[in-house]
Structures are given as C-alpha cells and as structure tokens.
Hints:
heterodimer, A: 115 residues, B: 108 residues, five-stranded antiparallel sheet, 11 strands, 0% helix
Amino acid sequence: GAGVSQTPSNKVTEKGKYVELRCDPISGHTALYWYRQSLGQGPEFLIYFQGTGAADDSGLPNDRFFAVRPEGSVSTLKIQRTERGDSAVYLCASTPAQDSGNTIYFGEGSWLTVV
Amino acid sequence: RKEVEQDPGPFNVPEGATVAFNCTYSNSASQSFFWYRQDCRKEPKLLMSVYSSGNEDGRFTAQLNRASQYISLLIRDSKLSDSATYLCVVRSNYQLIWGAGTKLIIKP
C-alpha cells in the first residue's frame, strides 16, 4: 500500500537481546518520526529525521536506543540489551516536510514485548 | 506538570448524547493544535485540526482558547462507533506533544 509500513508488527524478545524495528515511510516524505507509546499514555517522541540526518534525537531514553536513516527513506530503530521497560508500541510517522504537522501519517506500529 | 493534560476518563456516555473533552497545554508559544482518535491497538489517526475561530466537522466541533491555553472537542449525537481514545496534540515547530488521551465509551 501507499501508507507508512512498519515491520515487524509484533516482536517478543528476551531481556538482554538486541532488536531492530523497521519503518518504510510514504514515498517522497522527507520527515520521519519515531514515537513510543506505553499503555494508557500518549505517544512519546523519540527521534526526528529530516532526510538522512537525525535533526533531533533528544527523546531517545538512553544510549541503548539508536536510529538510522542512511538513504533518507527507510529508517531502523535499534534497541540494545532490551529491558522489560522497553515493552511498548513503537510508532513511526512521516510527513512531506517538517512544517506539515497536520498531515502526519502513522504506521500501524511495532508492538514490542520484552520478557 | 505535563505539557499537555487531559482527563483520562473513561467517559461512559449513552448513544445519542453530547460529550465534551478538554485539554490544557503549558507552552504558550504552541502553534498548531489537533485532535487525534486512537482505537484499541491501532495507530492514532487525525480527527481534526483546531483553529482559533473554532471549527466544525459534522458532529464534531473543536475550539481553541489561546488565552486560557485549552482546547476542547464536542461530539454531538454520539454513535457507538465513536468509542475510542481521543488524543489532544499540540505542535511547536516540528515537535508534536501528545496528551495521554481521554477514553470514550458509548453505550447502547
């Protein structure tokens, strides 16, 4: 389809393992966001890309979290040494440009469970 | 204090009733305001933008009060399908700051 695509849709992993979550934004969208949403909370900002560069990574909770977008399209969120507290849905969103806040498009999320 | 605050609910409302939610925000420099709807285990979807003059989309009316820094959403003639969590979102530059959402349950 033409929407934001996220894989895997569900991931169960053991504490301490490494996880990669992938986001394929809408073609041509230059801005890409990662959010994390825990149960009963709104989405929490993690990182924002404009093109290939991370324009703002201030939301990454610690150095176990890292994200890349090497070609300005697909992005991967990487979590090292996962902890049970990392369990959440990780949402990716894209927009045509950084000032198009009212046309942000979300993927369906990657549901991560750390056991 | 959270940057965007909402009553978490749940609001239990009979079908056909009118229901209103409020949301307050702390950053007076915020530029844009939105209501999103999120169904259980689904991603948020834009319901409507909120303009200073107030705006209406069918049964939904949104209002913004910049002086008091709050946003409201009114749903008239509520339907069973309106049951969802409603998230208030405030934008400053590229940043979207989300409320935790208000859960609405419409009962037959």
